[in-house]
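Problem: given the chain below (290 residues), write out its structure.
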Amino acid sequence: MTASTPPAAPLQHTAFYKFARLADPARVAAQLREWTAHPGDGLPALTGSILVAAEGINGMLAGPPEALDAIEQALSAAAGPLGGVFAGMVFKRTDCQTVPFRKLKVHLKAEIVPLGIAGVDAAARTGVNVSPQDWRELIAQPDVVLLDNRNSFEFRLGHFANAIDPQVTNFRDFPDYVRAHADAWKREGKRVAMYCTGGIRCEKTSAWMLDLGLTAYQLEGGILNYFKAMPDAERDWHGECFVFDNRVALDTHLNETATTLEDVYTGAPDGSADDAWRLARARRLDDAAT
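Solution.
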């Protein structure tokens, strides 16, 4: 079986995250392992990846729609084993023509998204969320600096018109770019807007940026939510959106494209060693999963 193998039955992908203070992340992880292995009577185990840390949860899962319904309801319940800590969490569903994952992994981590700066509390505060409908108007304003809060290989595959690529190879590098430009943005009276795939990277970064005296505007729900909410998203978006699973990339209508891992990781003008490493790693992971 290869990454391009179509699912034997209707299959969907759900992506979700929430910053929330967890008193016992290990207990939450154990409960998630149980729920994903047994989502309901007669329903198959889910596959995907979930990160759990003291700051919250970040996950991607795939399975039949009924199984995803069950796990989403359990996770977001206002009562129950998790005490309602994830109530109100948003889930982003997309259809699958390719099996996104082969296995399930639930990991305990120091951070659910590794900004690498101690003391950032995105559960307590964050930047200004902007709806997809208002985002289009915001990024057209001349006083707005539009930042792509993703890796350069993701930017190359697709991005919003007039967005800046900070040229980072790892999310932990993004704060260096912000620090280098923050004073100039403030002097020039610029507003900072940024976006990422699902919203989590922006939410964590914008919480930290408040300490620099910057209020960042962030696309609510990220690129995937924009594609879902805006039928004409191609007006603002150039290219495709990379997703971190076997589907590789989606177009502005959330359909899988023919883009391959080689297309994603061999497009750097300088043929960077980082991209070569990422491609080799992706191939190893795919081979190990088959």
